[in-house]
Amino acid sequence: MQLHVSPSMRSLTISSNNGFIDLMKIKVAARHISYRTLFHTILILAFLLPFVFILTAIVTLEGVNKCSSFDCLGRRLGPRLLGRVDDSGQRLVKDFYKILNQVNAEEIPDGIKLPDSFNQLVSEMKNNQYDAKTFALMLRAMMEKLEREIRESKFSELMNKHFAASSIPKGLYCLSLRLTDEYSSNAHARRQLPSPELLPVLSNNSYHHFILSTDNILAASVVVNSAVQSSLRPEKIVFHIITDKKTYAGMHAWFALNPVSPAIVEVKGVHQFDWLTRENVPVLEAVENHHGIRNYYHGNHLAGANLSNTTPRTFASKLQARSPKYISLLNHLRIYLPELFPNLDKVVFLDDDVVIQRDLSPLWEIDLWGKVNGAVETCKGEDEWVMSKHFRNYFNFSHPLIAKHLDPDECAWAYGMNIFDLRTWRKTNIRETYHYWLKENLKWNLTMWKLGTLPPALIAFKGHIHPIDPSWHMLGLGYQTKTNIEKAKRAAVIHYNGQSKPWLQIGFEHLRPFWTKYVNYSNDFVRNCHILEL
């Protein structure tokens, strides 16, 4: 870049280094120009020249050096000098959005043949020279087809998981059959539990009494083994195991052949309780034998279901609510504990899908402050699946009776590990309230709530709950894979509530070891039935 002033001071020329282009030429009038004016002019030009140089360099780097005329350079450089840029890319994006909106508003033609992959779509686009609108239409049709297939696959997965959770694994079925056979052929498997000299302990309130209601022999063994091995005073433990008539022989045989001394174990079938008569449990008999109820829990779960308006999560919740266990007498027995154990004052009730990892004897020292049920509340956590539950999550508040008597924001609590003060319980009408609401829900064709035994218990125990520290009872190990492992290790009781039980193939592999560490794999019955050979 050169600056040339004529000898006569009549002209000023700015030119490029190669001399071919005159960037700027100023002709000065013949009249006299003061040196001060000239100085200021040169000063201004010296200030502007670096910017002209930089813009020229940028244009050159972008290929503007191909321009053969000053006009070309002006067209390229002018907008930049004025602060404007090329907006062709933005116009292209706007046009594409416009096409997408048009395609989204149109119906996809029936019988349209769709490519099987994106690569095939691109290939067809090249071969058939699709315009942008046709390409967008094909892409939309492919995405909607993929969404439908994914949705159908998810519902199929949920159905298969429901059937897997509701069925009895071959290994557990084998275990029950072999132990039942052993009970009939081996006198040692039929020995009295506990031995006659220990019978007074069954009603001695100085011991720590646990109650477990289950028809799963292996699960019961894990609950008992984990409680005994985690206890600082196992000699003070008494387990009362209640099972159904078909499982009684096998359950009795297991604990007769596999004692957990110094702890004491009693096994009783529901048929051995004199109090459990039709007169005392008429509602439960109606629930278990009502044709409509049995069809709801055992029938075709897809019949009448409008999956197009149902999310997978909602469908999963509905399937969980239709688990056959919810109409089992064993699942409702906890509401009759004061009558089934008239001589006991305080007990801990456990579900069969829990593992005890810490000494539970301090539970008997907790003051329930006149309440009946010591339980962990499930409304104060961040986990939306388990620990953020209120009454609205369990009840249909569009039903007039529910809306009238219950508060949707009331905090829910958990079954699975509960401390029951049976002396205080006997002074209440909890059982009658439970029966009343079961009858109402039955009368209203199960429209007040769907999910099992917890909803009527939430009503019956209303005002009788004493919250205990959440570290005593950690829930959700059967629902989600994102369980905090370190938190699970510290919990006193971990609960595999949900479909993914640890004894099923659908159980979560990384959570299974908490449970399997208490399975006796050296036992002949367990080994011969190939338990947990997954």
Describe it for me?
- This is Hexosyltransferase.
- Pathway: Glycan metabolism; pectin biosynthesis.
- It is a single-pass type II membrane protein.
- The chain has helices spanning 35-61, 70-81, 88-105, 118-128, 132-166, 170-185, 217-230, 245-257, 282-289, 291-298, 312-321, 329-332, 337-340, 400-405, 422-425, 430-443, 454-460, 485-490, 513-516, 524-528, and strands spanning 2-5, 11-15, 22-27, 208-213, 237-243, 264-269, 346-350, 354-356, 373-375, 417-421, 465-467, 493-495.
- It is α/β, with parallel strands linked by helices.
- It has a domain at 167-529: Spore Coat Polysaccharide Biosynthesis Protein SpsA, Chain A.
- The strands form 3 sheets. Strands 6-5-4-7-10-9-11 form a 7-stranded mixed β-sheet. The protein has a 3-stranded antiparallel β-sheet with strand order 1-2-3, with no helix packed on it.
- The model has no long low-confidence stretch (mean pLDDT 82).
